[in-house]
Amino acid sequence: MIRVSVVGAAGYSGAEAVRLLSRHPGVELAGLFGSPGGKGALFQDLHPDLGGASGPDVVPFSEEVLLSGRPDAAILATPNEVSAEVAPRLLATGIRVIDVSGAFRLKDASLYPAWYGFTHPAPSLLAEAVYGLTEWCGDELEGARLVANPGCYPTSVLVALKPLAALLDPSQPVLVTSASGVSGAGKKADLAYSFCELAGSYKAYGVGTHRHEPEMRQELGFASDAAFTFVPHLLPLVRGILSTIHVTFDAAATDAAIAERYAAAYAGKPFVKVLPAGRLPDLKEVVVTPRAHVGWKLLAGGRRAVVVSAIDNLLKGAASQAVQNLNRVFGRTETEGLL
Ligand SMILES: NC(=O)c1ccc[n+]([C@@H]2O[C@H](COP(=O)([O-])OP(=O)(O)OC[C@H]3O[C@@H](n4cnc5c(N)ncnc54)[C@H](OP(=O)(O)O)[C@@H]3O)[C@@H](O)[C@H]2O)c1
Q1: Which residues of 252-266 are buried (b: 16+ CB within 10 A; e: fewer)?
Q2: Domain spanning 153-313 has what CATH number?
Q3: Which of 100, 188, 238 has most ligand 1 atoms within 8 Å of CB, for mutation?
Q4: Where are the domains of the chain?
């Protein structure tokens, strides 16, 4: 059994991780933690949906208490600055860390002040951290000490775009419109995220400033001045991300050639479902599942296409991908606890 502690266990993505891990046949929950000054939570109150299943209660985080649970791994579903401080100390004790925040996703430490608002306290770990877009990871994930779980928007964009990257015309822009349910912002109480402000509305935000943009550029191999435009939108739903991506190919493509690219990337990968040519995904097909769905429509002439992907931001965009990564780190079947 892998003993796993979750920090941020009562947050939106942490609670999803706890739900998955509590049913995982190869995992024992070693400890659940909330903020040091917080009230914690009883396991049954955290997850009444688990029908009375028992597990550790959520207690205020302290490293000593976490270590006393003798975990093999910790999932950090905490704010970026918290993960950046806590992960190095846990790693030093031999615990493997899967960080759901953005604290270890960027390889270039100099980007953190501008995009994340803090100077990175452990820049030497950025090179070591495995960027855990699981379907694109090879052997580096097996036995990794530190996994940087991808952001929710980047997961939705990268699964759709990476297989086609070699076909793109580098002189043409890539335009991404993504819409996320409000749980993407976490459980914070803020007027801007309240029901009355959001219900019945739809708006763009963070254009040119969203911290997921440098992450996507990094993973697509796009320079900081490449014509890549990412426009996130807030969708008045609880969960789900739909990304619509406009691309131009170097030469006219065919549906068969695109289908072949996707098949090469995702054959035998159960959590990415590629739809038949011309069929585009719908949020309701993926919400509350660990899957990403990808579809495309080739436009007249074959040089341009619209690619659409859909995920659940709290699952494939956070907790279920963290469990995929946990399984791979410990040499278990990637799908364990998720099917
Ligand atoms: N929401 C998403 O769709 C999503 C997707 C991918 C990645 N992420 C990333 O995952 C992380 C968590 O996001 P979330 O949306 O789940 O946030 P959230 O709902 O706001 O939950 C944050 C959790 O962190 C805990 N926490 C805060 N400060 C702490 C500290 N100093 N020590 C220990 N625990 C602390 C909170 O404890 P209390 O319960 O005591 O307040 C809470 O449980 C963030 O870095 C976020 O960017 C989120």
Answers
A1: ebeeeebeebbeebb
A2: 3.30.360.10
A3: 100
A4: 2-128, 153-313
**Using CA atoms, how far apart are residues 157 and 243, in angstroms rounded to an integer?**
6
116 lines ligand 1 (CB under 6 A): no
- What are the tens digits of pLDDT across the range 300-318? 999 999 999 999 999 999 9
CB 122 within 8 A of CB 311: no
1.10.530.10, 1.10.287.1080, 3.30.1330.60, 3.40.50.720: which CATH number matches 2-128?
3.40.50.720
pLDDT tens, position by position, 244-298: 999 999 999 999 999 999 999 999 999 999 999 999 999 999 999 999 999 999 9
Q: What is this structure's pTM?
A: 0.98
Q: Which of the listed residues 13, 47, 316 should we mutate to test ligand 1's pocket, taking the one with most ligand atoms within 8 A of CB?
A: 13
Span from the CA of 101 to the centroid of ligand 1 (angstroms): 8
